Every structure is written in structure tokens, then in C-alpha cells.
């Protein structure tokens, strides 16, 4: 048996832990061979690959990023290349493929599965927005990084009596924003699930100042948007991969809050800092368990599935269910966490 593995989409702490776990389980436990495709789906389309063995993955558990590299491929290009994909997999003797990625990568995995290509997916995203799994690896690391940054920004905001707007990742969901805002004691949080009214945001800040505080920290997910007509808003644009390129919610909030409150407002955009560096212990363990379960799914012929965390157990769920929708923050959860700020 020879299995292939690729890492697609944005990089994420814990990807190397998955690769390591897949190689160790496949080679040591079953005597299989493992081929790693370089740069995500592009490596499959261009037949760019590397052989993986236990020596090759030694020492990568704690490394951020992915030793296989990653890239984004236009979904239309991928769909038009099914014959190329079949040819490359056959030429390399690939019996089953493990794509590790987020929404786009898993959508592609489901599409391949529907064309009878043996696939088992592993969910990856710092945004924690993949359905059918309680948590995705990378999320814990991203929240830790964001929390540490917000902790540090508290002191400079207080020293200079500023309003500090911190923009964190979260295109469609506010998991990182909510968890980091609560963990770091921020004063307001804005998420994509609930369009905000800028006047209500400013009213909350005014109350804080009226009560004697002289600074505030606002955490905003990058995909947060104002309610229609409440403030001028630049929505950005859609790129070639179908993803929205945001114009910067923190910068737009800076202008509006500064004008309405007549206070100094500064911004910090954490950006790719949340994706980089060493994964937390939690993410290393979770990623390893998800990778190992994918190998066992292949051994048992459970194709068209995704390894997932359900409670404390790693289980298999159908890819068709995992990609049916994004896992957004429920309204009651958002209200519960926001009430604790």
C-alpha cells in the first residue's frame, strides 16, 4: 500500500504533526510507503512529490508551517483536471490520498471522493470553522498568540489613554475573536456572525470612560461587518480563488471611533502572526491523533470520510457532512462569551 498526503490552503500550526503521524503509523505499523505532494493540490497537478519515511519526519513535531509546502489552486482548474489527477496518482502508485486542509481543500477532497478516488480528509484551520469536528488543530495556537498580543496591548493602551482596535483572523466566524477577547479581558468584540452598529460600539466605550476608565481594547474579527447604513464600509473584493480580500476592518473602525469619540485610536492587525510558529502542546496532540486516525481509516477502507474530534474521541465523519456548511459561532455562545467581557 502506498498513500499520498498533501497540505492545502493557508499554513497552520500542527500540519507537520499530522505529516509525522501519518508517516509513522503507515510505515512503522503497516509497512506502507508514503508520498508527499509538494505545495498542495498544485503538487498533484504537476506531479511534484517527495518520498516520506520516519527519518524524513524526525524533529518536525514542534515546527510550524508544513515541510510539504502549500498553495491555493482555483477550484475550476482542479475540476477541469480530473484526468490529470487520476494519471498522476496512478503513475505514483497511490492507493489512497490524505488531503489536510480547510474548507476549500476538503471540498476538493469530497469532489474527488465523488469521482471514486479513495480519499480520507484531515481538518485544518485556525478559524475553527470546519463542521462535524469539535475543534480543528491550529485554533488553540492562534488563540494563544492573539491572547498574548492583546495582553501586551492592554499596557500600552492604558499608558497612553487610547482606544486600541485589534484585528484577528476569522473570515466567516468569530471563534478566535471571542476566545482571545475573553481570555485577554478585552472590552468589546466584533464577529462576522453579528453585524455591529457603530453607534452602539461607541456608546459602550463612552460608558466605560464615564465610569472612570481611560482606555479600551476592542477585538474585531477580520470578517466583521457593520449593519447596513450604520457607517461607511469598504467591503474589499473577491480574488481568483473566490475568497474575499478584506479592506481592513480595524482601519475603518479607527476612523469611525476616533471621529465619534474624539479620542486617539490605534490599530494592530495580527495577521499571519496567528498562523506561524510553534504549535501548542494541545495542537500537536490533536493533529497527531487526527493524522493517525486517517491512516486507520485507509486500513479499514473507510474512504470519503474525515477524521474528527467528537468529545474526547477521534472519530470518522462523512466528508459530505463536513463540507455541507461552515461551523459558525451559535448566537447563544456568542452572547454568553460577550457578556463576560
What does this structure look like?
With 341 residues, the chain is of the alpha/beta class. It folds into 2 domains: 2-138 and 279-322, Rossmann fold; 141-275, 3-Layer(aba) Sandwich (Rossmann fold). The protein has helices at residues 15-30, 41-45, 75-79, 82-91, 103-114, 139-159, 175-184, 198-210, 249-261, 281-299, 319-322, 331-338; strands spanning 2-7, 33-37, 49-52, 96-101, 120-123, 163-168, 188-190, 216-221, 237-238, 244-245, 265-269, 305-310, 313-318. Strand 1 (2-7), helix 1 and strand 2 (33-37) form a beta-alpha-beta unit. Helix 1 crosses helix 10 (281-299), helix 6 crosses helix 7 and helix 8 crosses helix 9 (249-261). The chain is elongated, with a radius of gyration of 22 Å. The mean pLDDT is 95.
Notable traits:
341 residues, alpha/beta, Rossmann fold, 7-stranded mixed beta sheet, 4-stranded parallel beta sheet, 12 helices
The CATH class label of the largest domain is Alpha Beta
Please indicate the percent range of residues in DSSP E strands (runs of 2 or more): 15-25%
The H/E string reads EHEHEHHEHEHEHEHEEEHEHEEHH
**Main beta-sheet annotation:** 7 strands, mixed
Give the name of the CATH architecture of the largest domain. 3-Layer(aba) Sandwich
**What would you report as the Rg, rounded to the nearest angstrom?**
22 Å
Helix coverage percent: 25-40%
Number of strands: 13
Judged by helices, strands and strand pairing, the structural class is: alpha/beta
Q: Whole-number average pLDDT?
A: 95
Number of domains: 2
What is the CATH third-level topology name of the largest domain?
Answer: Rossmann fold
Amino acid at each position: 500500500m502506498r498513500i499520498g498526503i498533501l497540505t492545502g490552503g493557508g499554513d497552520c500550526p500542527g500540519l507537520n504533526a499530522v505529516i509525522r503521524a501519518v508517516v509513522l503509523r503507515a510505515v512503522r505499523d503497516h509497512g506502507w510507503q508514503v508520498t508527499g505532494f509538494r505545495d498542495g493540490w498544485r503538487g498533484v497537478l504537476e506531479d511534484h512529490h517527495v518520498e516520506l519515511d520516519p527519518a524524513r519526519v524526525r524533529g518536525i513535531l514542534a515546527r510550524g508551517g508544513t515541510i510539504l509546502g502549500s498553495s491555493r489552486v482555483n477550484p475550476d482548474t482542479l475540476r477541469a483536471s480530473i484526468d490529470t489527477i487520476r494519471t498522476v496518482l496512478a503513475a505514483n502508485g497511490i492507493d489512497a490520498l490524505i488531503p489536510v486542509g480547510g474548507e476549500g481543500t476538503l471540498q476538493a477532497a469530497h469532489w474527488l471522493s465523488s469521482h471514486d478516488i479513495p480519499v480520507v480528509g484531515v481538518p485544518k484551520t485556525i478559524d475553527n470553522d470546519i463542521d462535524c469536528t469539535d475543534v480543528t488543530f491550529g485554533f488553540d495556537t492562534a488563540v494563544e498568540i492573539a491572547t498574548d498580543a492583546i495582553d501586551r496591548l492592554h499596557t500600552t493602551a492604558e499608558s497612553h489613554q487610547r482606544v486600541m482596535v485589534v484585528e484577528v483572523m476569522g473570515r466567516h466566524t468569530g471563534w478566535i475573536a471571542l476566545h482571545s477577547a475573553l481570555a485577554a479581558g478585552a472590552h468589546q468584540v466584533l464577529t462576522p456572525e453579528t453585524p455591529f452598529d457603530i453607534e452602539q460600539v461607541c456608546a459602550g466605550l463612552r460608558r466605560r470612560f464615564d465610569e472612570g476608565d481611560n482606555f479600551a481594547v476592542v477585538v474585531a474579527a477580520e470578517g466583521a461587518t457593520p449593519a447596513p447604513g450604520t457607517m461607511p464600509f469598504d467591503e474589499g473584493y473577491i480574488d481568483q480563488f473566490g475568497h474575499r480580500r478584506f479592506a481592513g476592518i480595524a482601519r475603518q473602525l479607527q476612523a469611525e471611533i476616533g471621529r465619534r469619540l474624539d479620542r486617539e485610536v490605534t490599530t494592530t492587525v495580527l495577521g499571519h502572526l496567528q498562523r506561524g510558529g510553534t504549535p501548542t502542546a494541545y495542537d500537536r496532540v490533536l493533529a497527531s491523533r487526527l493524522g493517525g486516525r486517517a491512516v486507520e481509516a485507509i486500513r479499514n477502507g473507510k474512504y470519503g470520510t474525515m477524521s474528527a474530534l467528537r468529545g474526547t474521541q477521534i472519530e470518522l465523519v462523512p466528508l459530505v457532512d463536513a463540507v455541507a456548511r461552515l461551523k459558525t459561532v451559535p448566537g447563544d455562545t456568542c452572547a454568553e462569551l460577550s457578556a463576560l467581557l
